[in-house]
Amino acid sequence: MSGAMIFIKDDLKINDTQVEVLAGILNLCALVGSLTAGRTSDYIGRRYTIVLASVIFLLGSILMGYGPNYAILLTGRCIAGIGVGFALMIAPVYSAEISSPSSRGFLTSLPELCISLGILLGYVSNFCFSKLTLRLGWRIMLGIAAIPSLALAFGILKLPESPRWLIMQGRLGDAKKILLLISNTNEEAELRFRDIKIAAGIDENSTEDIVKPPSNTRGEGVWKELLLRPSPSVRRVLIAAIGIHFFEHTTGIEAVVLYSPRIFKKAGVTNKDKLLLATVGVGLTKATFILIATFLLDKVGRRRLLLTSTAGMVLTLTTLGFSLTMVEKNDDEKLLWALSLSIVATYIYVAFFSIGLGPITWVYSAEIFPLKLRAQGASIAVAVNRVMNATVSMSFLSISTAITFGGAFFMFAGIAIIAWLYFFFLLPETKGRSLEEMEELFTKGIRQSRPRNASVQLSQISEI
User: Fold this and answer.
1) SS (H, E, C) the chain
2) Would you say residue 464 has pLDDT above 70?
3) What is the pLDDT of residue 236?
4) Domains of the chain with bracketed CATH
5) Residue 10: pLDDT over 70
């Protein structure tokens, strides 16, 4: 959409307000999708929820690619948004539930890595399709998303269902077969199988393939347990998950990714081809540093990467705010150093975001909720994410008009300082812990970051 908006505005003759609505409406609809996805995935399973997300997004992409007028284009964007909400909630949860503790950070960050690769491919395709006619080019930019949607719908059927969801349904035999496939050793599979049964409220000594499912296997009553009568540990988990999703977007990443052509134009890059190439650089930076983060999450840990990333974002956002302010105050003459500093600061900001806050947001929120609360807890966190994404994407142009581009990034820098303090005091380290240990971690407090003996033993078994 970032590149397509340049051409949509010219073709459909829409104003800046309509552009903002078009950019942000996807996230408001994703809010609906994410809130619905939690209960849906508890009911039909994780795999079929991903299939449903793909089908919804496929329909939205076809409508956007057709897009004869603004109303139909907006409708397609809304439908696609519902699919996005489903996918953003279920992909990290599915990844976390099939991963072992030793590789969970790597595997659960892969959805975010693939999103960044998708953004990069979007930028590259925008540059390629911009050579087509005005009427055809932007429609292909949006409609081509139907192809990966179709591939995902069929591809996911070849993958195993979440063993944790199967155990919640009482299907112990099926769950054990999958755990034997996705664990490093048979001993690790047995330990994981036992811990999940205990977490689900099933007798750990049960040897039957099918047992009576525990209560609330399809999400009944979960909202009350999450929001109305949460235990102290669940309350802390919810605060941590909502907080990290809130700050992911209020620190400005959506403004940079979605409106990077306008930022570069403000910094002095005016040619359309060069603007699109500059945005390809943003996508390439984002993908590269998220790839690096996937290998660091299980070695360095979530907390250390998160604090380092946020501190770097504070510095680069301040630099970007300063350089853009200098550009705007000296509009009559071009300050080459300020223009160059704006572009460099944008790339370094994206790098700091992508090596920490970007992937860790999804990893952290997918792994900290207790088993029976995980799907709907994650859906609440994703809903907050989408609201803040929509808020930033739909208001950035208006804010930058009111307080200048430089002032907007100074504002984001201030929010990033608050985010660092929030993460430091409220988010404990989760590296090396099994999903079944998370509630205990949040019960004890932020300083309790060392794994239990069971996890240490499991790690040793994996190494053997």
Assistant:
1) CCCHHHHHHHHHCCCHHHHHHHHHHHHHHHHHHHHHHHHHHHHHCHHHHHHHHHHHHHHHHHHHHHCCCHHHHHHHHHHHHHHHHHHHHHHHHHHHHHCCCCCHHHHHHHHHHHHHHHHHHHHHHHHHHCCCCHHHHHHHHHHCCHHHHHHHHHHHHHCCCCHHHHHHCCEHHHHHHHHHHHCCCHHHHHHHHHHHHHHHCCCCCCCCCECCCCCCCCCCCHHHHHHHCCCHHHHHHHHHHHHHHHHHHHCCHHHHHHHHHHHHHHCCCCCHHHHHHHHHHHHHHHHHHHHHHHHHHHHHCHHHHHHHHHHHHHHHHHHHHHHHHHHHHCCCCCCHHHHHHHHHHHHHHHHHHHHCHHHHHHHHHHHCCCHHHHHHHHHHHHHHHHHHHHHHHHHHHHHHHHHHHHHHHHHHHHHHHHHHHHHHHHCCCCCCCCHHHHHHHHHHCCCCCCCCHHHHHHHHHHHC
2) no
3) 93
4) 4-162+221-442 (1.20.1250.20), 163-220 (no CATH)
5) yes
